[in-house]
């Protein structure tokens, strides 16, 4: 047997089939439509239990922004069997921890527990999938917590305001233009009835995926899933009409004023999303471009703009190629003292333009490739990261079975591929620019996180 470190090195060098180090999860689909995926991992006597609903803020309509996130909060407020706040107490008593999260594409709930407590968690989660109380009095208290969360994390955070404003301008039609937490005006008008309608529409077994990773037997998990979740009835889901973002025909700009010490510049170009793991190529090349620009300490943005030119205090880039909707390739920077946001904007564009004109060296491509592949492989050291990867892949319409192929496609990206996408996707016609214009800092201390904020 090859030692683990040698196997990893061999993988990074392309000398070993990826399947040799990755376990194959097991899956089944219950009669009510719930998909169950189990990955056995015997390294510790624990388990991660996650339920993913294929519904997020992108499924909201104007006037109801924030309802997906608000329901996530209310999922901890009780069923006829389990009182308000009791869910968390039971998880803690079992020696575990739990939380939940909402984004544009999905809502998910998880518990990390000793393996013997898994049946109890499955029963608890199935109970609130089918029998949530949604007491108007509990909602009246929780919506205040949510509004305070918005004030703390967005309204009092200039960078969050910048990202929110940029999304609202970059997307003219797609629901990604709305913030996940919701517009404050919509939160102020939200009712428990709005949440009940959302819950009845989307929180059904045929719109959910159960993921379990840990020291478990998959057949036993399947039986327990049938015993708990299998008792819930499916319902017809609302029709999801595809929403296409119209082609952008010129640069868009937005300025946000907020209390901050320094300005920031945020650039966002429309970029393709991975739809066919085998046929698509540009999303992999764009991911590699992102690694060349900002994948390690010696990457181009930091080396050129921070260390060499001293034009920026900080720089970065980001690109997520897997989502239910469209994608953006982002570049963010804070100009150094004595330099303007306009200078930094031009310098960020110039870094991509230089790659479009001159390409990248094989050495920096090799380093970027190693960073990307290693980050994928290291996920296998965490049960939680494994469960996250499986759930996210399934919800956005890909498959966890494609992970190996995706890594192979990343490894196959060439310098010519990186240069090609740098030429293709970074024109001003598809660019939205956000500028944070700093205002004097208030003397008042920042708010603390409100009680009840869970993520």
UniProtKB/TrEMBL annotation:
Domain Peptidase M16 C-terminal, first and last residues per copy: 190-372
GO biological process: proteolysis
Extent of the signal sequence: 1-23
Matching Gene3D superfamilies: Metalloenzyme, LuxS/M16 peptidase-like (3.30.830.10)
GO molecular function, one term: peptidase activity
Keyword Magnesium included in the entry's annotation: no
SUPFAM superfamilies to which the protein is assigned, alphabetical: LuxS/MPP-like metallohydrolase (SSF63411)
UniProtKB keywords: Hydrolase, Protease, Signal
Domain Peptidase M16 N-terminal: 35-181
Recorded family membership: Belongs to the peptidase M16 family.
PANTHER family xrefs: METALLOPROTEASE, MITOCHONDRIAL-PROCESSING PEPTIDASE SUBUNIT ALPHA
Name of the molecule in the record: Zinc protease
Protein species of origin: Azospira oryzae
